[in-house]
Batch of 4 targets.
Target 1
Amino acid sequence: MKEHRQITEILDQVEEHLPVGSKIIVACSGGADSIALADALLLLQEKRKYQLVVCHVEHGLRGSEALADADFVVEFCRMRQVACEVLRVDAKKFAAESKLSVEDAARKLRYTVLFEILSKHKSEYIVTAHHRDDQAETLLLHLLRGSGAEGLGGMRCHNNSIVRPFLQVSRRMLEAYCAMRSLDYRTDSSNMDLYYTRNKVRHILLPLLEREFNPNIKQALAQTATLIAEDADCLNELAEEKFLQYVLQDDHSCSCDTAWLLSLPAALCSRIIRMMWKKLGAAGLLTFQQTQQVIGLVHKGSSNKRLMLPGGTCAVYSYGKLTVAAAETPSAIAAQNYVFDLAELQKAGRLQVELPNGILSLGYFKGSASPLGHATIYPWHLLQDRQLEVRQRQDGDIFFPAGSLGSKKLKKYFNDIKVPPEQRKSQLLVTCGKQVLWLVGGKAAGWHEQEQGCEAWLTLDIKYFSLGDDK
């Protein structure tokens, strides 16, 4: 009787989240949770008129063990006469190319493949077997990263085409379901590898919290995620309403009045900035630090100052208006001030900006030997601010010309070498705070000439447009 009730509870969860007649792609690794999901959907298939395709993604990480998992899923489907797709990806290669962790790379590739299969079969939903334990782990992972409400809200039961019917069901309950239904399943040996952060949370942090603080911690964390998600969704709806009312949008840019933007509560202000960026089709997320830099740009109120953002985009403040645009649009190119976050440059390895007469490249080079073949280089640890700027001169700029005996005001340096006034106005500088690192295309700074033991370097280069270039 108890077994029947537990099976019914699992089936009820599926029915609650998937309407009659749904066309479904079932993500199936071969583990207990996804086998329970596939079996439950098959039990309900006739009653609910579900159209099912099982999809298994092999990530190229575990050799023969992973191939055996794929064979297991194929056989599971053959015995039950359900359509099956097996696709293979190279997570390690993609991780190296995209500068992601192997975990993140595997997840991105997996969902890319699942959406391809969704389109191929003209299905409506991708259904995954994420459960309550996964939700608890996800909340803790986001908490450790310093996420906001979007991350702390964890996974949603419904996220566009993705449906997760088991977020209120424990891993233990799904394993019990498999036992009651006499279902074999595979166990992924990498789930025990403490190299992966999620596994550390699963095998070290959560057991500690259960043992020392709350034996029902997974349920409590999953409940907290649900509450935070509800609040986040409400704030997102409010921000979307404000965005539609007050933000001007075209194919390449979004703009708004900055006095209005700053009058909003912080939670709405930051969301609208992220929406402005996202509406340009940029992939990924705008981080907390990047969002704060945009707000700082607005607060500073320096017209025609440009802040570079991920995805080939930038934010420009000009006379009471904030514009987030593709970097090559006229409104962005018109700004002659460019701001680069050092953490973003370090992560990307190389960033570029289009100037009126060429392409300026800023690079991060890790290594004790000074990199060769660059217009100028600078020790990374001597950079005294969190940002680099490409801009025209300002009062108080200090320059230490390479090969000289010491620093002087940039104005005096220009006087000493008799730079004409018009050239002084147009000369672009690469600066870090008030320190001038390079007169773009000309003299470099020598702040570091006696420096020893550098472990990383800033590299600076410019490639000028030729007469034949469209630019």
Target 2
Amino acid sequence: MASTLTNVDAVEAVLTKIHLSDLFNNFVESKVDNLATCRALTDADLSRLGITTIGDRTRFRSEVNKVTELKTHTRPQRGEERITQNLEERISLFRPSRSRFTATTCNRQKNKKPRTWTCEFVCLSNREAIKTPTGEEKVMLKRAGLGNKKIQFCLDDSEELFRKKLFSDEGFNKLRDCGGFERLRCQSNCRILEIISSKCTPESLRSIIGGQSKIYIRPIQTNLSMSVSSVAQIANTSEIKDKCIFCDKDILITDLRDHLKDCDGNVQNVQSSEPFAETQSTSSFSLPTEFDSVDNSDEDLPDLHLARNNNETTTEMTGQTEDLLKQTINSCIDFCTEHKVTDPVDILRHIQEKIVCGRDLDLSDDATTNDGETNFIMVDRDTLLQSAFEEIPALTDLRLTLQVQFYEEGAVDLGGPRKEFFAILMRDIKQKYFDPVKEWSKDYEVVGKIFALSILQNGPLPRIMTTDLIEELFETEEPRQFVKDLRKGLDSLGFYQLVRSLPSLVHLFTPIPQTPITFKKITTLLKPEFSADGSNRMKTEKKVYSKFLKYLREAASGRRGDVNLAKVLKFATSVEEEPILGFTLHPSLHFSERKSHLPTGNTCINRLMLTVPENGEKLPEEDVLFNFFDYAFCNAYYGLQ
């Protein structure tokens, strides 16, 4: 009996230690009267006993473990201690949900790799900077050891560890003496920077900006030095040496030209070469007087030869690319024929895997960025069709992943801007070239290239032609001239040959009615990511999500004006319907603490962000909140329509 009382007293002592002594009667009534039983309690059991918050449950278990260890070290395991040990062994065998508290699993947890987060930082030198740096400024910052750098953190790092890594040689060591720094990010659709209000920890920053956005670092008290860093000097200094033919000394190749000016052996050579220079000058023939002003010196000849050689090299490389593409197309046709692959989706997936090269088309993880070769183009959103028709023909290898940069916009294309580019372009092409057809236009070859690129790089399918035109495009032996041009553009990536050999691919061009986005479809696509179960943050997030669901129902029924469910999906993913090959990274709905209640979207990772009130503030009235939603979802293409 004394032993039982001792165990009950231990349970009461644990509850008193964590300031929950008023719950002791609940434990007694439920016959939780010893530490072994306490260690076996699940989260649901503790909630029924009155310990509802995550923090209290953590402190309770920690205190139970401390008391148990103290009892184990203070007296030998006999009698009831042995019973306790047997009970724990049975728990570890038959209660796998609680087995994480056993020694074996704890060891496994210790060996588990920590969660990491890699972010791109841009360190500015001017403490008054309010805009993102230009191209020239980026080069100067890079030479000074500032500018862009990717730094990896553990998500569990504290603020002190975050600062330590940021100040290291891997980061920006010049920040150590600047008197503090601010963290900023670029506002949408402009280069203006705004301060990030959050804790200076990787976990907090990642929850606010996601995995792709850049963080700009700005000094507070003093400007950072723009002198070339020693690391940059070492990196840019060549260690290759060559022998001076006049003095027979090994000289660094970067210093060789300056050495020749002072080399003793070279002085005599320079003097002996002067008469030859005069002879060459006097022996050159003279042109008629009207051309005397034209500079015909031989200095220009190497440039002409170089230009000719560059053109020959480019032509040779283009020919090699075309030959490689033909081999790849024939290989895809043979594979699909041999394995009897007839589904156009499966064929397209195989073709995309074999033809597209360079950087991955889309992100597969929201914590990393993709690296690799791309076709980089810059286009004007206001005159997108014109600028696209100037940029696309200049590309020499259409197989590379397209990287799109809109004028005066800071968004980095990791998949989202490219999909938006193709969506707008396909709409404009339909209006200008197919509604109605302009047979006299010379642009249809470029249109064909854009069709092929959009199909291969997860853009919208070109289902904007009539069935008669599709038949003429792929079946007629002598089509009209504009159809021949369109066919040539498609075959720049082998699509004419592919459709002729694999007829089911014509489905990619056949016009079909667009399937409307339903309430069930969009709620299935935009899956919410809530905080830990039972937390106060989760309760608030569910309130916001409940309001959002009500808003979606109103949008689905046409009660939100111009907003429909397709626009909501487009805001988060850049597309109004699910791509034919699906989303590489499944769309998601996240919550963040911000002052503004305007939703934000990250189309590169297909994420919609809703605002949770800061510091326990109340949500706005429903009408006000829904007006915020309307304003955001009508803000298509990063600008009000």
Target 3
Amino acid sequence: MDPAAPCLVGVDYFPEHWPEERWAEDVRLMREAGMRVVRIAEFTWSKTQPRYGVWDWAWLDRAVETIAGAGLKLILCTPTACPPPWMVQEYPDILPVTTQGRPMTLGQRRHYSPLHAGYREACREIAEQLALRYGSHPEVIGFQIDNELHGTIEDVGPLAQAAFHRWLKARHGTLEALDRNLGLVFWSQQYSNWSQIPVPASASHHPGLRAEWCRFVSQAWTAFCRVQADAMRPHIADRVLTTNCYLHRWGMEIDWHELMREGGLDLFAFDNYSNALHENGYYSDLARSLSTPHWILEQRCGDTRHHHIWPEPEVPLEELTEAAARAGAKVITYFRWRQGLFGHEQDHGAVLDHHGRPGRMYGRVSDAIARVAAAEPIDPPQPSTGIVFTWPDAWLSSSSPNSLHYRDLILENAYRGVFEREGSGRFVLEPGQLEGLRTVLVAGKLIHDPDWEVALIDFARGGGTLVAFPMLFAKDAFNKYRPEYLTPALREVFGIEIERRILVREGHAVTAELEGAPLLLHTRVEELVPASAEVLGRFSDGPLAGLPWITRCRTGKGSAVYAAGYPDADGMRAVLDRVAVRGD
């Protein structure tokens, strides 16, 4: 898709929920609102394949032609998030086993294990059939695979356990190596047979094994996506393949960076249920770091049964839509066209209310679309501040007894501070993405990696400002602490030693000062021993009162700043004002 093309704004539509005689009226209203693209067929497996070997595409053919005939583009979805009842009856073992030890039941969605070979084959078949039928349609611009991969469902049943054992064996080779890598001697967890290893679905399990489980789950879902992508690719010419990822507040189980590299997708897309402009910016900037362009396949309009219900303030729909388009989204579809009369989401906000007549939300959506269409074309922002971000670090944090709360740390502290100060930021997902940045924030980077270490040191010595926070490279890839707090190279570049690390109870904060102004530090603080570093601020109270909390060391053409505490967004802005702008 051409990154220079204008943003197409449209809607998610469920024609199967409405009488066919209503379709033409719906499409007319979409056109009058200025919509240009419609996403359909997301949960239609039981209608498209009502029984094994029986296909009914006629209804979808008519829906596609009704929409295309009005001059609207289409995005079609594989319906694999909801296996039909006949399939579950024939293959009951496709149902995932929840962390409560019970199989899921029909009547929900994502009631399947991505590891079931028979289900993967069924998904491959229907994805291929969809591509064969519509992959050359002139008004179809892309396909969405499944819906919100993983969601909040975690399979811990026999299929998952056996696959996890195979994965561990391939990764570690022997039980002795697994024991050594993870430290399984703790609490007598040294296994003598692979089959003894449990599914560590609870955060209270061994931190090393839990982190490995997170990696396994992400790779399993990426492979599930790839099965469908490979089946569709030969039949869709230049049409886009993507999937719709859900927000991090519901989980960070899938590594989006790995999904884009290994999942067979062309561009990144997400569902935008952001509650605030800085959260909207976070996902837009993260999306731009993953692909150019990107799509938003569910843009909220109204409440979602959980958020923006009175007396909470209404979602700033117009501002969110405009901001997303400015940040480089080339497709934005509102969820959903009309409030459903039945089903689990019948109270979910929509463009039209239950009665189906244009009302206040229809007017707001129409205005938002007009504002996007009238906006002067602009290039997406080119941020000067980067934020290091990796899913494996998030998994280590969530698997540890004292979590850093990675999502909140990055979104609400680091990113929000950058957003409110500069309007946007760039997420640095791998060591080779530092070029063009002036300042880089390294918060929650737990896993020591020589490539990351070299890249960050080179960035500082090459003229950048490197700003690091507690727990920098504190662990190895298996969630074990490293006894060496900083490597010799890092001690030199930061000009400090770290003497000890101290936990801060959740809900409490340590006060520190920076240029005479107070700020609050959360989660962790560290005792620094400056060598060649300049002290920029000291702790005002707490266990380290009077000692340095933030230092700076000149190195090469740039500088390396170490902050021995995690500030909130206001504190992050203060740090950036001190070290990134003045730089004195």
Target 4
Amino acid sequence: MTITTAPFDPRGYAVSETIGIRVTFSEAVTVSGSPVLKLGIGEDVRDAEWDEEASDGGFVTFRYVVTLEDRDEDGISVGADALDAGDGTIESAGGVEADLDIGDHVIADDRNHLVLGSPPEAACAGQRELALTHTPIVVGAWDGTPFRVDIIRNFPDFVTDADLEQLLAPIGRLADQIEAQLGYRIVEMGDLVEVPAGAPAGWDQEYERYWRNRLLVSEPGELLAFYLNDDNQAWGGGGSGMSAHLCCGTTSYNKRALGLMWTGDDPCCQGDANQYTREGEAITHEVFHLLGFKHYFDQHELIGVQMSPGGLDRPWETGSRIYYATWTDIENLRCIFPEGG
């Protein structure tokens, strides 16, 4: 048995972070129903749910998302009888039920995997200064009024207003999450808007031309998302579905987003539900770039605030199919955007 994740905060897993555990069988197994793995977290037992997509052959993976009430100062544990098939089965290819007794493979209190739940407020340590080096046009404009995130109606005709509203909806959820943790809002979901007056002809047709010439810049207090009918050279030239334009306080859905990553007549309503479909909340990742955050694995240490790995950045590393902000990400927002400006 192996714990496959690590807490972003060295003090332990905070609320909304995922704990992943892989159980290894001696041969390939078939799983049905809703098996769980019972985790000892403090004085409580929590059910980690089977992650079908992260399981393969003899490897069966379980995930648990930490809540506000969770706390374990000794480290999580897994007992010998923790594996519960519930109303389903775990069996070999020959139909023989697997032995669910974990035996000697238990996890005693693991101090490398403490659980904070709702951690105490930490002192700020230069996050605002780092964020200013990354996205000064946005961070420097903070006056205590939430940034409004709008989407421009410049998408291809087959993308409807209902589709765009669903693309924008994650910002509303993020705004609520921030307010629930900090007690005030930093972003808010805006509206669908028309192309701003004065935008030059062809402003949304060439990736390099757009950002090099700052063809469209958000107004103070506004962050704009739009369609860019071109691709960047990210991921070895393959291009990324979205981009944050730090020059301008904007983020784009690139041509690739409406092509390879979405399928069917209505690209916003089908696909594989990965991080780039409308359910995937990739806009959350890009907006955090505009708020002063960088990928956790890149750039100079004195530029930008790190995103949480497995949450805001590369969520697939913890088995998540969407980008999401962890407790630590939002605590960093508190330091970058103090209440009242």
